[in-house]
Amino acid sequence: MPAPHSRPVVGVQMFNQRFSATRRGARLARLLASLQLVEWGHPHGTDDHDRATIVVAELTANAALHGCVPGRDFALLLTYETHRSVVRIEVSDTHPAEPALVTPAPDVEHGRGLVIVDALATRWGVSGRIGPGKTVWAECVLSTEPSPGLSCL
User: Fold this and answer.
1) Which of 40, 89, 37, 39 is nearest to 63 (CA)?
2) What average pLDDT is seen over the chain?
3) pTM of the model
4) Strand partners, 90
């Protein structure tokens, strides 16, 4: 009788929530993403936590400011692939325009969100979605192991 094949344990944990397409909605999305990263073992103040939280903040702010369609909200999906130590951040909104990476003039006070995402994320892009709009996604590779003693959902 042949020996059974062993497969590595693959863990995928998710957080999914809809928010109003407002500054308050973007702020709440950032705060809840920050808490979720802590639950997944990446505490406040670590490079991994801060990098992913900033990416969430920039993408959700863009959804609230530029992807806003009156009466519509945006969705945040976080996927943590424990076997690859990757957090995938997806922000979906109902506006059809795709974001473009541009470098603003030094004296302009806005327009740096995707520049920041591009610098902090391992990779990012835009994909279609069912229904109107698009999904802007980014992946952050986590360099540290989850902290022991913290729960993983």
Assistant:
1) 89
2) 87
3) 0.85
4) 77, 137
